[in-house]
Fold:
Amino acid sequence: MDIEDIQSPRDYLIYSKEEVHHYSPAIGKLLDLSTSYVYDAEKAYAAGKINAVWSRASGWEIPLAYASDIIPVAYSEMGRLSDLESVTIAEDYYQFPQETCSMVKCTVGQWHKRRGTGIKRIIGASVACEPYNLAWELMRKEDYDVHAIDVVYRAPGVKGERLEQLVQFLIEQIYETAQWLTGSKEINEDKLKIEILRKNRLIAKVRKVLELRLKHPYYMRSLPSIYLLTGLNTYFGKPAEYEAVLDDLIRELATAPVNQRDLDKVIPLVWVGSAGQEFGIYEAIDQAGGALLGFRGYPFNNYDETLPPVEALARHVLGNQEAGASIYVQKVIEQELKKVKARGLVLYGYLGCSYGSVAREMWRDYFHKKGFPSINIEGTFQVGPPTGQILTRIRAFVEMLA
Structure:
């Protein structure tokens, strides 16, 4: 397949696997896991082989679900399955305003098309955003079983007694979610401990992959690098297979010869935002000589393995750099910029997401005052090629840094 033949995100995945990364079996397997995630989970669920719920892409309920023998299926992965029809359903049938976040509209449209069949349970988060809160209420009326978590955030400077109150509140939420998942507040702590150990083990392996990429910036290009990290959240419903991919990637990168020419010409970048569905943006970055080597969602804190599993889960959430005000994320970005010696910062979000727009503008202003170049771009959640304007802007930005 040639780049000119690409018409959809699926085409980009095939192109990335067969043309760009033909030399890497591990990257091919990673892209296969991402592509088949939702389809395989729904197929196995329909056949009665697994129990499954629609879940957030990176919520604390994911290790809890796995410990309960339930597969979490991230509804953010439905972007590649969405099209104009999904958006139209949300706008016409459910009366979402046109300016509503495209991610919410696509998700609602996809759930609407799955009414009466497939996975019927949804985990939401009450403070995600108002459009999603509305979406979950609408899905309840469509006979979906919806459980909305009261998410706890830790404001800057919160510690001591107040922090302990937040921990206890979150522990209560964990037990309530377990009851919704299984019908009982009793949690199999041995299985949850296994999931915590697995998460720490996989975090270490992803760290190793990212460390090795600094010596091989073009071995694993932008698109699979994004899905390396999204896989760390959900394992694409196949934990053992995802871990095997990480082991293979580490072996490939550790034995690949260092190309000094690549190190001399690479333009290191930090990506801050969601996994965009407009894969042409990643291709534009690659063609301009850029490499996404740092990410907002990284580094992740490890779970404290010395604590009881439920408490470890709660304290991990409240100790994570992303569990609170955007200033925490700002610090993570600064760490990433220094670690990968980045020359530029790419801020990406979905059209219509007002919360994300405010945060990105805050970060853009902060780093602009520090004299660090950045670009703030917005894309759509549903399938479709990025606009020519976006591609022109991203190419010009990366080339400016050369």
Notes: The chain has 16 helices and eight strands.
